[in-house]
Design brief:
There is one protein chain. This protein is α/β, with parallel strands linked by helices. The chain has helices spanning 10-18, 35-44, 49-53, 61-65, 80-92, 102-119, 130-143, 169-172, 177-182, 187-194, 197-210, 229-232, 278-286, 312-321, 364-370, 405-422, and strands at residues 2-6, 26-31, 56-58, 72-75, 96-99, 123-125, 147-155, 247-252, 269-274, 297-302, 333-339, 348-350, 357-363, 379-382. The strands form 4 sheets. It has a 6-stranded parallel β-sheet, with helices on both faces. The chain has a 4-stranded mixed β-sheet with strand order 8-7-9-10. The protein has a two-stranded antiparallel ribbon with strand order 11-13. The chain is globular and about 60 Å long. The N and C termini lie far apart (46 Å).
């Protein structure tokens, strides 16, 4: 089975390290803005010269996607607009697409997945990343006959993180700027992990893939260890923090005062399940599951995720089984752009983890009713109005005519998905007003 990888960063490099020990898997081509850097990344993870010589290194994604000997495309750039273009090219070429680019998936994944189904190819979330692992737990729970009360992941969170910028991010990781630079760590990318944006993107990907709901006012990030999952993540009517059963949520590994949570789930994923009857509840107790005080809510979790080291499972599942490891089925959630500080006309938005906005997860109907600008499109667009700190940036607050060609394509694709969601298709796939 032959695949092509687009983006040889950290996630891609971890995947490449496993290729020599995965029987039957070959990488026909690697696409990167710097082919030489990608070649060195392969050497650094243990590739020998024979394997390097058998692999085509290029900066031309279209060339790699359209190769006759490539079955699966792995999109690992992390850039939402680029991810959309690459996915659409892959689907047009009748190639399976495994997206590490959850930023693109949260923006237009439901539309891309439907296009792939119509083309007879697989569009898949990337195993090893938290959305696919969480979707797997949800599938397990439902297939076993349990009601899914909540699902999500853990992270390190405090409310003040929403305003952190790349200038002060490293102090929250316990690093100096020099240490981070020597380690090759990108401050904006790591800030998107910290300021809540990445968590919002991943929870929306899970909601769209599983049919679970996004909290109406955004993620709450309750501090919670693994033993307390069934107690905290149950409906408010039962004593928990959820609006109702069947929601996504992220749990924090630190208390609001900064103390560490006991037995935290910072690196893992979870699902909270409900016993469908008294007999199943009694089995929870007999087999040692941690439950809430009623005995009816329990949790299963995976304490770690190995990101790129596990990605081969998605690639092989798509090629050999024709099955995704999670994929969006409906447009249930969205990630809207929220001002980190008072923003003024003429300022340029700088995307996930930057200086201007962070991403909040909300229900799709809320985003559409607000006319909110998705975080995946908050790249190099100038503001036309004042946006106070903490307010949602709207389509009407930016000048989309200033978008470059790549971003323009992404905007058109997103508008087409919005039009389909609202039942208002136009010849250009453009939605002129927010739908309610």
């Amino acid at each position: 089975m032959r695949a092509a990888l687009i983006g040889a960063g950290k996630f891609g490099s971890m995947f490449l390290s496993q290729v020599p020990t995965t029987p039957g898997l070959e990488i026909a081509g690697i696409v990167d803005l710097s082919p030489d850097r990608a070649r060195e990344a392969c050497r650094s993870v243990g590739w020998d010269e024979a394997r390097l010589s058998a692999t085509k290194f290029t900066n031309d994604a279209a060339e790699a996607i359209n190769r006759d000997d490539v079955e699966v495309i792995i999109e690992a750039t992390g850039h939402p607009a680029a991810g959309i273009r690459h996915a659409r090219l892959a689907i047009k070429a009748r190639k399976h697409i495994v997206t590490v680019n959850v930023e693109a998936d949260a923006l237009v994944g439901p539309l891309l997945a439907e296009d792939a189904r119509r083309a007879g190819v697989v569009y898949s979330l990337a195993y090893g990343d938290q959305p696919a692992l969480t979707a797997e737990l949800v599938d397990w729970a439902r297939a076993a006959g349990f009601g899914v009360v909540a699902a999500g992941k853990g992270t390190k969170y405090l409310p003040l993180y929403h305003s952190v910028t790349p200038d002060d991010v490293w102090a929250h990781y316990g690093l100096t700027p020099d240490e981070a630079e020597r380690a090759g760590m990108n401050p904006q990318m790591f800030n998107s992990f910290l300021d809540g944006t990445k968590s919002a993107i991943e929870m929306v990907a899970i909601a769209n893939a599983t049919g679970l709901d996004v909290p109406g006012k955004g993620l709450e990030f309750p501090p919670c260890g693994v033993d307390d999952l069934p107690h905290v993540l149950r409906p408010r009517s039962a004593g928990g923090v959820l609006d109702h059963a069947g929601m996504v949520e992220v749990v924090s590994s630190i208390e609001r005062d900064g103390r560490p949570v006991f037995r935290d789930l910072r690196w893992g994923v979870y699902v909270v399940i409900e016993a469908p009857n008294d007999y199943a509840a009694s089995c929870f107790k007999q087999y040692g599951l941690k439950t809430d005080d009623s005995g009816r809510y329990a949790a299963m979790y995976k304490p770690y995720h190995l990101i790129g080291l596990e990605l081969g499972i998605s690639v092989l599942s798509a090629a050999l089984r024709g099955e995704p490891t999670g994929q969006p089925r409906e447009f249930r959630g969205d990630v809207v752009s929220v001002a980190k500080r008072d923003l003024k006309p003429g300022e340029m938005l700088d995307g996930e983890g930057g200086y201007t906005v962070w991403g909040r997860a909300v229900p799709a109907q809320t985003s559409l009713a607000l006319g909110a600008l998705p975080i995946g499109l908050a790249h190099r667009l100038p503001l036309t109005r004042n946006v106070p700190q903490g307010e949602v940036v709207r389509w009407s607050d930016v000048d989309i005519t200033r978008a470059d060609l790549l971003m323009g394509e992404a905007i058109k694709t997103r508008r087409a998905m919005e039009a389909l969601r609202c039942g208002k298709e136009t010849p250009e796939g453009v939605l002129e007003t927010a739908c309610v």
